[in-house]
Records
---
Amino acid sequence: MGLNLKSSTIKEYMKAAADLYPQRSRDLERPFQHPSLEVDYPLVLIKALKKYEEVPNRREVITDSMFCHIDNLAHKYHEDSLHEAFKDWSAVSRYAGQRRSEWCQTTKTKFETVPDGPEDEALAFRADDITFYDESGRLLDISRVPFSRVAYAQLRWRYQKNGENGEAIKYYVDESDIKWCICKALWNIAHRAIRLNIPTNEPVAKYRDEKGKVFFITDSQVNKILQDAAKVMLNIKDEKVISRWTTHSLRVTAANELHRLGFSDAFIKHRLRWKSDAFLQYLRHTIHVARNHTNAMRLSKKNLTLGESNLKSVNDRANSIKLLRTPGSDNILWEEHFLAAAA
């Protein structure tokens, strides 16, 4: 039905199930309260869900199927259309998790400027914030070389919420999945800027409409594309639920993708530009980090499944995890996976 179950509802379901448990006739303990169980896993999960529900104005994650729908839809339009342009920016978001103000605008004809900065200094990415390099680290002239020469791209973050303005982050090319490669998406964006003759001082996130006019991509346009994708691919009809997909979903999705792939909190904060713990200032955006990041990012054929590239490493890790066996039962709980799910 496209509706979310609340923690209170799930708790009542579990309570009813526990009441049906034949502890009296079989002289058994109530479920999940056995003395040998050190952790009440269902309670951990319920508390995690309750905490999530209490987050105000939360945004939903963009699923793999939604990304694929956006890609399929883009092919129906010309290369500089709104849908093609957004498809490229959505590919960038899977790695970069950019905030709305860092790339798109609130109106089609005006762009936001840096607070307390020069009058015409754009807040969002400009064309000169995107650069490409070969394996030797040499800067490439995109007008003279093919994409096959690209080893990695670099994105300069002009103005950031964390105050690290001008930070440059590298992203390694994904040769096995060019369709969702951030370097290829940035390459498309850079060449679109040339075709649309975007002024050097203006943000680069623009498109050309059916009448040939060039406009900035707006947050309301992005929201509609995402929400339409959710309606089609997730069969959600509740408008209140649908409204949870917005431009901020791009950033939420990037964080969740890295988390589900097993990256540490430090890695996520570092790559997605959150500033909190003091040790983060000692991390650097090396090309090795960029390559590892690329190797881990693969769209799965089905939602919420591990891609083939990650399956072996997960299995190897699982084999080394301590198994927790419930006394008197053949059930095996993967202790670490339960804790990861609860988190």
---
Amino acid sequence: MTVTTEPTDQAHERARRDALAERLRGALLGALDLQAVYLGDRLGLYRALADGGPANAPELAERARIDPRYAREWLEHQAVGGILDVDDVTAAPDERRYSLPAGHREVLIDPESLSLVGPHARFLISAAQSMPKLLEAYRTGEGVDPDSGADNVESQEAINRPQFTHHIEEWMEALPDIAARLRSGQGRVADIACGTGWSSISIAKRFPGVEVDGIDLDESSIARAKAHAEDEGVDGRVSFLLANGADAQGDGRYDLVTIFEALHDMARPVEVLSTARRLLAKGGAVLIADERVAETFTAPGDEIDRMSYGFSLTSCLPHGLADKPSVGTGTVLRPAALEAMARDAGFSRFAILPTEHDGFRFYRLDP
């Protein structure tokens, strides 16, 4: 008998082929799940189940004011995927009652849960809507203006809010001298690229007496930030200014300047850092949080680098290139590159802080 064996390199390539095919099939399934999550989020279906309790398709349709047939299809999809529970799979289609498990509520709709993932579906849909512009940008080298629509703005807000709500004080304590100054109730903070304001609001709530100026160039985000501050009862100590971070005023006024997950989005980050240095009072510092990517380019990379490059391809890089001239950083801002920016902006000290976080790396800059 003659036994033939496949060459090692061919077997290896066949295994890689099969692994990629399986991976992409899984990605398709995940994308379809996120589309369904988007529907449940935007139509208020999860909220209707969470607030009103278990429901069959006609009941959910009435609560959410949608068509019963669509309600049934969505409920069945969610149950087949294990996102919702169903009481009796053998019952007639419109008699089956579906419920939202308590833990899944945190993942899908709890605005302060650290397990919240559902709003990523809004980001995905927003990016998909920009795809025709993105294709043209890839051909021309131009940028794509950030979408100021609800999906884009609210997804960023929802994704970051739990982090600020639960962790902002911990992040500030990594700068003990600055934290002590803020705890005295006499400090002032400039929060550059504050978005819809939850970072600024969380600082004010954790450090009573401190005044915070949130700065952002997106008008819709600033409007939402002002409303949030009023709702949270801190509008007397938190102000929001519509401005480019590079043009912020108030030389020598601030004990702390923060830039949370935004430096990599900026067309001219050195200009913004130069302004941040100018804003600092004597003994003040800049606190930056950005993606915890690998310190050097590595391929294959880990999940953080894969996700960061994924966001960069469709969002951060094209948005950063929209404002010319632009350095075109993209989401993957590695520590050495950030340090070079800090030196170019005139900072004399650069430090990576020991703060532990799954997604962010923290930096301190001193004049």
